[in-house]
Amino acid sequence: MTVKTDVDALTPPHSAFAVENPMKRDDPASVLEPQAGVPGEAPMVRFVGVTKRYGALTVLDELDLDIGRNEKVAIIGPSGSGKSTLLRVLMTLDPLTGGMIEVDGEPLTHMRKNGELVPASPKHLRRVRSKIGMVFQSFNLFPHMTALANTIEAPMQVLGLSRKEATERARDLLSLVGLEDKCNHYPSQLSGGQQQRVAIARALAMRPKVLLFDEVTSALDPELCGEVLNVIRRLGSEHNLTMLMVTHQMGFAREFADRVCFFSQGKIIEQGPPQQFFSAPQHERTQQFLRAVKEAV
Ligand code: ADP
Ligand code: MG
User: Fold this and answer.
1) Is 19 left (phi over 0), alpha (psi -120 to 50) or beta?
2) Dihedrals φ, ψ of 13, to 5°?
3) How many angstroms is it from 3 CA to the middle of ligand 2?
4) Count of alpha carbons within 13 angstroms of residue 207, beta-carbon side
5) Cβ–Cβ < 8 Å for 81, 68
6) How many other C-beta atoms lie within 10 A of the C-beta of residue 282?
7) Which ligand 1 atom is the nearest neighbour of the CA of 82?
8) SS3 for 113?
9) Is any ligand 1 atom within 6 A of the Cβ of residue 83?
10) Does ligand 1 come within 6 angstroms of the Cβ of 129?
11) Domain 7-131+208-296 adopts which CATH fold?
12) Cβ 133 under 6 angstroms from ligand 1
């Protein structure tokens, strides 16, 4: 059984902008004091003591992680170490067991009420999460909708854009990902690489500040990988976007990321700038992982 496929298969096509249930938590009272909460100054994303358990299994273990504005962070590590879960809790697809997450200087999983932090209401969640977009390994496009229709759906439903506004925005974005001539194609008429580029355009249509990528090239042939990575490269260099990317492509992580975080058993056991991380990994587990990846190539 491969975990990631199972988890991805459970994700419905619309989940990137689905409205979630209010979050449940063990211990909201134990949450730390809120940060200053000044957009523009605070880190773009902040995980504070984030814990996620499934039954007896601890998947994220009191994780602390700050991600700067426009920072590009590559998340690497063995299968089952919690990488997808990290992105999913940030996208609010899964509730936390403990701790809190802040986005753009304000709490995501919690909100302030009468000076206290309480679990976020669905409305608060929707508002803060709209700053985050996510692209999945399995594209998750609506199969019965064209590329254009896939890209205008959420801006119309969630942001309340008119069809005309949403269509203009979608055409620009499909053009940005090199698909201006494929607007009226259905997913089944597109290659995997093209479908993934539509998925990127669809995520961008919500004008997120943070973009999450979960192994977005893993389902693609090597040739199609390149076209998707090129789009990500361009987005990274030409737009103000904070990016978190789970990837097995060490070459791309090395070239693209400002920082690499190595996950093992729900913790970041080593992190650093790619140059340093890849050439002189300190932790024995990191060295072992990088050796295994090298041998597999
Ligand atoms: P990674 O992306 O690093 O491969 P995941 O974050 O997908 O790992 O999963 C981490 C662990 O959490 C795995 O052991 C997986 O089986 C478990 N897990 C993930 N999602 C669920 C779920 N919905 N229910 C139960 N266990 C889960
Ligand atoms: Mg995964």
Assistant:
1) beta
2) -55, -30
3) 7
4) 9
5) no
6) 12
7) 6
8) strand
9) yes
10) no
11) Rossmann fold (3.40.50)
12) no
Residue 266 alpha carbon, nearest atom of ligand 1:
10
Q: DSSP 3-state helix, strand, coil percentages of the chain (rounded to 5)?
A: 40, 25, 35
> Is the distance from the beta carbon of residue 58 to the nearest atom of ligand 1 less than 6 Å?
no
Token code pair at residue 35: 């940060």
For the chain, the structural domain boundaries read 7-131+208-296
Tens place of pLDDT per residue across the chain (297 aa):
333 333 333 333 333 333 333 333 333 332 323 334 445 578 999 999 999 999 999 999 999 999 999 999 999 999 999 999 999 999 999 999 999 999 999 999 888 888 888 888 988 888 898 999 999 999 999 999 999 999 999 999 999 999 999 999 999 999 999 999 999 999 999 999 999 999 999 999 999 999 999 999 999 998 899 999 999 999 999 889 999 999 999 999 999 999 999 999 999 999 999 999 999 999 999 999 999 998 877
Place of tokens 């803060």: 128
Burial class of residue 59 (count of CB atoms within 10 Å of its CB; 0-12, 13-18, 19+): buried
Nearest ligand (C-alpha, residue 214): 2
Ligand 1 pocket, mutate which of 59, 61, 63, 88 (most atoms under 8 A from CB):
59
CB 178 less than 6 A from any atom of ligand 1: no
